[in-house]
């Protein structure tokens, strides 16, 4: 996080030294774009935090530790809908694996979590249109399921 | 006009939720409310620490980088080496996936081919370096490596499929910036 901002700041300083007016214009344009999308981001975050408060990591762990096709499907669906940040999802997945959950189930959960975002669909649609957003997420879901099954075979 | 009204509604919802957060932190002794509030404040902090700089960099990209440079390297006529550029760009970034949408839109606007825009989104969602290091820590390098090797061809394929389909005509009409 810090490194990203420091590097960004360095780029900004270099640009400013090269062309003051152009840089001011860039920053204003960027912040305008930010301002246009920030309320929507905030509402998405509200939805995610309420969902995570309803569905605690302990409950998820309970759900995902049984290995049947139905649970595999559940893992895919939960992973697609949820938008759990990496710092919660990866430790959770690690615990699941160590407790003997199947690799394909954990992989399915992690991969859909990363590749498919149902909660963020409205934001994606705002930039790319609904059709494109839905197709991208649909293809990603199929891809994630295939990856998860293959990982179950390989590991 | 439409965007303004939508933003006003979303800001209103945010305001109400912030009041709820204040209430749950100071007054309520309710576990659920407290969890929701602390979750939201954590996410908000994450977003506000990354997104402004991300958008400033998008602005710089938009103003400084000439269209023909983008077209030459990652445009319709660019070769498969463009895939490598997109993956490298995605790997160096941080933040949640919704932060990648405006970057992808800016790339598209500058003449980046649709297939490479979607490869960028795919790479961003599964191979950001900060995220990989986290995954390796908790799931082990073997799990991460196998997942990467399997995911790489999948999102590249998705990119090419998306690039071929007519859906991308929609992107031109979608609201941007």
Shape of chain A: elongated
Instruction: List low-pLDDT spans of chain B.
Output: none
Report the principal-axis shape of chain B.
Answer: globular
Q: How many structural domains of chain A?
A: 2
Percent in helix of chain B = over 70%
Q: Compute the gyration radius of chain A: what is it?
A: 20 Å
What is the C-alpha radius of gyration of chain B, as a whole number of Å? 20 Å
- Give, in order, the helices and strands of chain B: HHHHHHHHH
Q: What does this 3D model show about the protein?
A:
Chain A is an all-alpha fold and 155 residues long. Chain A has 2 domains: 1-38; 55-154, no CATH class. Chain A is built from 8 helices and no strands. In chain A, helix 1 packs antiparallel against helix 2, helix 4 packs parallel to helix 6 (103-115) and helix 6 runs antiparallel to helix 8. The mean pLDDT of chain A is 90. Chain B has 177 residues and is mainly alpha-helical. Chain B has 2 domains: 1-49, no CATH class; 65-173, no CATH class. Helices cover 81% and strands 0% of the residues of chain B. Chain B has helices spanning 2-26, 31-64, 67-74, 81-91, 100-109, 114-127, 129-139, 141-164, 168-173. In chain B, helix 1 (2-26) packs antiparallel against helix 2, helix 6 packs antiparallel against helix 8 (141-164) and helix 7 crosses helix 8. The radius of gyration of chain B is 20 Å and the shape is globular. Chains A and B meet through helix 1, helix 2, helix 5, helix 6 and helix 7 of A and helix 1, helix 2, helix 5, helix 6 and helix 7 of B.
Keywords:
heterodimer; A: 155 residues; mainly alpha; 2 domains; 8 helices; B: 177 residues; 9 helices
Quick rundown:
The complex is a heterodimer of chains A (155) and B (177). Chain A is an all-alpha fold.
SSE layout and pairing:
The complex is a heterodimer of chains A (155) and B (177).
Chain A: H1 2-18, H2 20-54, H3 57-64, H4 69-81, H5 86-98, H6 103-115, H7 121-128, H8 130-154
Helix pairs in contact in A: 1-2, 4-6, 5-6, 6-8, 7-8
Chain B: H1 2-26, H2 31-64, H3 67-74, H4 81-91, H5 100-109, H6 114-127, H7 129-139, H8 141-164, H9 168-173
Helix pairs in contact in B: 1-2, 2-5, 4-6, 5-6, 6-8, 7-8
């Amino acid at each position: 996080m810090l490194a990203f901002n420091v590097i960004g700041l360095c780029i900004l300083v270099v640009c400013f030294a090269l062309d003051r007016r152009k840089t001011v214009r860039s920053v204003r344009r960027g912040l305008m774009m930010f301002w246009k999308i920030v309320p929507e981001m905030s509402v998405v975050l509200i939805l995610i935090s309420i969902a995570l408060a309803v569905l605690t990591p302990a409950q998820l762990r309970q759900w995902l530790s049984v290995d049947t096709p139905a649970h595999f499907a559940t893992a895919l669906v939960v992973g697609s809908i949820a938008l759990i940040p990496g710092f919660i999802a990866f430790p959770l997945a690690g615990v699941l694996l160590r407790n003997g959950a199947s690799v394909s189930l954990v992989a399915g959960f992690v991969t859909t979590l990363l590749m498919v975002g149902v909660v963020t669909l409205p934001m994606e649609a705002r930039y790319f249109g609904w059709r494109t957003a839905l197709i991208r997420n649909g293809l990603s879901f199929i891809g994630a399921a295939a990856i998860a099954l293959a990982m179950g075979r390989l590991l | 006009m439409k965007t303004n009204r939508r933003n006003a509604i979303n800001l209103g919802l945010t305001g109400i939720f912030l009041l709820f957060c204040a209430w749950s932190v100071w007054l309520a002794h309710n576990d659920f409310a407290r969890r929701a509030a602390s979750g939201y404040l954590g996410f908000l902090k994450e977003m506000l620490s990354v997104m402004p700089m991300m958008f400033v960099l998008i602005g710089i990209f938009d103003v400084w980088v000439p269209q023909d440079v983008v077209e030459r390297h990652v445009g319709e006529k660019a070769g498969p080496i463009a895939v490598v550029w997109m993956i490298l760009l995605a790997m160096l970034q941080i933040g949640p996936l919704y932060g990648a949408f405006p970057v992808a839109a800016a790339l598209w606007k500058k003449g980046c081919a649709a297939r490479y825009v979607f490869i960028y989104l795919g790479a961003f969602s599964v191979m950001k370096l900060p995220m990989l290091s986290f995954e390796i820590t908790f799931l082990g390098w073997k799990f991460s490596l196998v997942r990467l090797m399997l995911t790489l061809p999948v999102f590249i394929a998705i990119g090419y499929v998306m690039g071929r389909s007519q859906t991308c005509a929609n992107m031109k009409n979608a609201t941007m910036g």
